[in-house]
């Protein structure tokens, strides 16, 4: 029982990080039908940007105000990088064959990953301890302040995003563009602006996810983007790619799944089990858990 | 045009035949790996370029061929020659078994499933399933190839072995383009629905493409294992599949295109080795730029004798 509760807490924490990153994949895929392979590296980059903002801009202060400022600054910077990425690597290829954009995304991933290495070096860096180490003990179950914060902030952000997409006019424009770009354009929606907006939202949520990864795991490396990116991408597919609540659900489920596998089975096989789950889901229900039935045959 | 391609093929063959004698040992190793990677990239081209299936797991079949040779040689004492047929057949069977339930998946989903296969495969190798894969360190001390009493252990000898394998692959590729199967694959890539409705068994041909690609990659893997006389899991990681995937798309889905792709994506980084920290940074930009300037690759595929005005450029996606 203790193991169960402990892994539940761990699973929800890593699940909410996966979900934040997965939102970036799923929103871009929803509108552009493109797997943004550079997103994982953007997440990794944001952890490093956060580190630099902390040491250079904030003068290593870790008051509540400073921490909020670090998050806002990093998210803002990464949003700019996301918009630039879209302008440089994806917009020129919007009418090109689908695979050309995939290769361009892989190229962008290489650029960002090696850019991190050139700026911050190839060795592992330790992310600063921005949140005080505080633990609650419930019997044998240990829950840290960081875990609670990650879970709560992620949930707040996801609910806010959901309301934004479902209830506002701009949100309606995003949904319209993801259903049919040409029709949306005919209705007077500026699809280019919507795509830029998607990259702003996706990159800043991914940046917050990246900072959480830094806070939770502490060690950050230049090439960690692929690992977390792949997991988040699986989360997006699990929930039904292109579907925003699906990415949240998929992230949580994947977090719980991998936590229980490492808790009960073995951590060396965790990746293999996760990918077998993915393959199974795709064979049985390719549209994911919440994916709508699309006319296009999958 | 036909004459030109014949002449350029001859020039290429002659240059490749005398190449190892012009290089020092380090570049001989690079040249052998170039040949091996060319074979894998051509096998990837069958699945990705010819049949149009988004496969990002070709390193798995490559790795399987290498590991079959390594395991049969070091644990069971088979001579290398005897392991080669198994290194071809085993990946073919694996390819058919894995492809059968997934070939109906649409582009991106197929891509993710093949990534998944590759990652599970590497985890199986690292966790030393069955105690034969040697775990994270892999297997060392694989015998050299012995053929008709000669021991092919120098890099030059292995170069010619790999070259022979490449020639065999090229022959398969050229014949494939002219055959019924090649036409079926081409049609099925251009329009699967139309292909299905005129009676092409799309499922069968897709599985066939996977199996053929897997077999060729397995053969290349066997050569790779004998070249280094060692195998280890990191040579077959999924990032390697990404390399083969990019090679075909950057080069273009034609024989010269794939070879140019291997040169650009593998040999050039070796040449610029001294700029180690910068080279992949620049490479990423080069990949983006290539795709913007030549979305269908440096040397795109042409098929049959279709007049130019009849070829409709796809507006959205391909």
Spatial sequence of strands, sheet with the most strands of chain B: 1-4
H and E string of chain A? HHHHEEEHHHHEHHH
Largest sheet of chain B: 2 strands, antiparallel
**Residue share in β-strands of chain B:** under 5%
Number of helices of chain B: 12
Order of helices and strands of chain B: HHHHHEEEHHHHEHHH
Low-confidence stretches of chain A: none
Quantity of strands of chain A, as a count: 4
What class do helices, strands and sheet pairing of chain A give?
mainly alpha
**Alpha carbon gyration radius of chain A:** 19 Å
Strand order of the largest sheet of chain A: 1-4
Mean pLDDT of chain A: 90
Largest sheet of chain A: 2 strands, antiparallel
Question: What fraction of residues of chain A sit in β-strands?
Answer: under 5%
Proportion of residues in helical segments of chain B? 55-70%
Helix/strand layout:
The complex is a heterodimer of chains A (298) and B (318).
Chain A: H1 2-32, H2 39-57, H3 64-90, H4 98-120, E1 125-126, E2 135-138, E3 141-144, H5 145-167, H6 169-179, H7 181-186, H8 191-217, E4 219-220, H9 225-239, H10 244-265, H11 270-284
Antiparallel strand pairs in A: 1-4, 2-3
Helix pairs in contact in A: 1-5, 1-8, 1-9, 1-10, 2-3, 2-4, 2-8, 2-9, 3-8, 5-6, 5-8, 6-8, 9-10, 10-11
Chain B: H1 2-18, H2 25-50, H3 58-76, H4 80-99, H5 107-126, E1 139-140, E2 145-147, E3 150-152, H6 155-178, H7 180-190, H8 192-197, H9 202-228, E4 230-231, H10 238-251, H11 255-271, H12 276-293
Kindly describe this structure:
The complex is a heterodimer of chains A (298) and B (318). Chain A has a single domain (2-284), classed as Orthogonal Bundle (ABC transporter involved in vitamin B12 uptake, BtuC), CATH 1.10.3470. Chain A contains eleven helices and four strands. Chain A has helices at 2-32, 39-57, 64-90, 98-120, 145-167, 169-179, 181-186, 191-217, 225-239, 244-265, 270-284; strands at residues 125-126, 135-138, 141-144, 219-220. In chain A, 51% of the residues are buried. Chain B is 69% helix and 3% strand. In chain B, helix 2 packs antiparallel against helix 11, helix 6 (155-178) packs antiparallel against helix 9 and helix 7 (180-190) packs across helix 9 (202-228). Chain B has a domain at 24-237. Chain B is globular, with a radius of gyration of 19 Å. In chain B, strands 1-4 form a two-stranded antiparallel sheet. Chain B has a two-stranded antiparallel ribbon with strand order 2-3. Chain B is mainly α and 318 residues long. Chain B has twelve helices and four strands, in the order H-H-H-H-H-E-E-E-H-H-H-H-E-H-H-H. Chain B has helices at residues 2-18, 25-50, 58-76, 80-99, 107-126, 155-178, 180-190, 192-197, 202-228, 238-251, 255-271, 276-293; strands spanning 139-140, 145-147, 150-152, 230-231. Classes of the chains: A mainly alpha (298), B mainly alpha (318). Chains A and B meet through helix 4, helix 9 and helix 11 of A and helix 5, helix 10 and helix 12 of B.
